C-alpha cells in the first residue's frame, strides 16, 4: 500500500492547488491511532495543504486495513486524487479506474471549505466506505434490474422500450441511494475514529450544506439521520 497524489484522469467509472507527493505510509496501520488535536485549520493555503496531507497520511492506511479486513478479495489500494480545475464546486467522490483500483477524489473547493481536520477525515473515510461496501457494483445491479423491468413493462403495453429502460435504470440506481449514504456514514465514522479523528465533529460538515430532508427519490438522507447514524456507529467503539 502506498499513498500518493495524482491529478484526476479520464476513464473513471463514477458512483460522485498542486501539492507535493505524500510520503509512503506504514502498512499495516495500527488498529486505532492516537487522537488528533481538534483545532480549526487557519485560513491560508499552506495550512490547508498541510492539514489535508496529514489527513490522507492517517486515514488512507486505516481505510485500506478496514477494507482488507472486511473484503479481502476486493482491491483495497486507494488512490487519492485532487481535481484542480478552476471553478469546480465543492465535491468528493469515490470511483474506480480502468483496472478496478479504488479512487477517492476531492475538488480544491471542498478541501478549502473544510473547517478542521475532522471534516476532511470524515469525508475521506465516507468515500472510502462506499468502496468497502461495494456500492458501485450494487448501484449498477440496481440500474440494470430497473432497466429490465421497465423495458419489459413498456414492451407489454406498447410503450417506448428505450425510454422506459432509461427511466428504469435511473430509478434503479437511485432506489437505495439513501441507504448507501447512511451505510457509508456508519462505516466512515468507524474508519475516521480509528484514524484518530472525531467523526461527530467531522459530520458537522453536513450542517453547512442544504438539508435534503426526505424528498422522494432524493440521493442523500436528511442531516439528522446522518448525524444519528454517526453517533450510533462510534458508540460501539
Structure, described:
- The protein is of the alpha/beta class and 237 residues long.
- It has one domain (5-136, 176-235).
- It is 51% helix and 9% strand.
- Strand 4 and strand 5 (102-107) form a beta hairpin.
- Helix 1 (45-70) packs parallel to helix 3 (117-132) and helix 6 packs across helix 8.
What's this entry about, in short?
The chain has 237 residues and is of the alpha/beta class. The protein has one domain.
Anisotropy-based shape:
globular
Number of domains: 1
**Count, helices:** 8
Mean pLDDT over the full residue set: 73
The helix/strand order is EEHEEEHHHHHHH
**Uncertain runs:** 1-30, 142-152, 163-176, 214-218
Compute the gyration radius: what is it?
A: 19 Å
Termini separation: 25 Å
| Overall number of strands | 5
Percent strand equals 5-15%
Q: Classify the oligomer.
A: single chain
Layout of SSEs?
Blueprint: E1 5-7, E2 13-14, H1 45-70, E3 79-83, E4 92-96, E5 102-107, H2 108-113, H3 117-132, H4 135-157, H5 161-174, H6 177-194, H7 199-203, H8 223-235
Parallel strand pairs: 1-3, 3-5
Antiparallel strand pairs: 2-4, 4-5
Descriptors for this entry?
five-stranded mixed sheet, 8 helices, 237 residues
Amino acid at each position: 500500500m502506498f499513498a500518493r497524489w495524482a491529478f484526476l484522469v479520464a476513464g473513471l467509472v463514477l458512483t460522485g492547488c498542486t501539492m507535493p507527493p505524500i510520503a509512503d505510509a506504514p502498512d499495516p496501520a495500527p488498529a486505532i491511532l492516537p487522537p488528533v488535536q481538534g483545532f480549526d485549520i487557519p485560513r491560508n493555503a499552506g495550512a490547508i495543504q498541510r492539514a489535508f496531507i496529514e489527513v490522507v497520511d492517517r486515514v488512507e492506511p486505516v481505510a485500506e486495513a478496514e477494507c482488507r479486513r472486511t473484503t479481502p478479495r476486493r482491491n483495497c489500494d486507494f488512490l487519492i486524487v485532487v481535481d484542480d480545475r478552476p471553478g469546480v464546486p465543492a465535491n468528493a467522490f469515490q470511483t474506480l479506474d480502468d483496472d478496478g483500483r479504488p479512487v477517492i477524489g476531492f475538488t480544491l473547493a471542498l478541501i478549502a471549505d473544510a473547517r478542521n481536520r475532522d471534516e476532511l477525515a470524515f469525508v475521506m473515510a465516507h468515500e472510502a466506505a462506499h468502496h468497502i461496501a461495494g456500492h458501485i457494483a450494487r448501484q449498477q445491479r440496481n440500474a440494470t434490474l430497473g432497466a429490465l423491468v421497465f423495458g419489459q413493462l413498456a414492451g407489454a403495453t406498447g410503450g417506448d422500450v428505450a425510454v422506459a429502460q432509461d427511466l428504469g435504470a435511473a430509478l434503479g440506481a437511485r432506489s437505495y441511494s439513501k441507504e448507501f449514504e447512511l451505510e457509508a456514514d456508519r462505516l466512515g465514522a468507524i474508519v475516521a475514529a480509528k484514524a484518530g479523528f472525531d467523526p461527530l465533529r467531522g459530520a458537522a460538515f453536513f450542517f453547512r450544506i442544504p438539508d435534503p430532508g426526505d424528498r422522494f427519490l432524493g440521493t442523500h438522507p436528511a442531516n439528522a439521520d446522518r448525524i444519528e447514524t454517526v453517533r450510533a456507529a462510534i458508540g460501539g467503539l
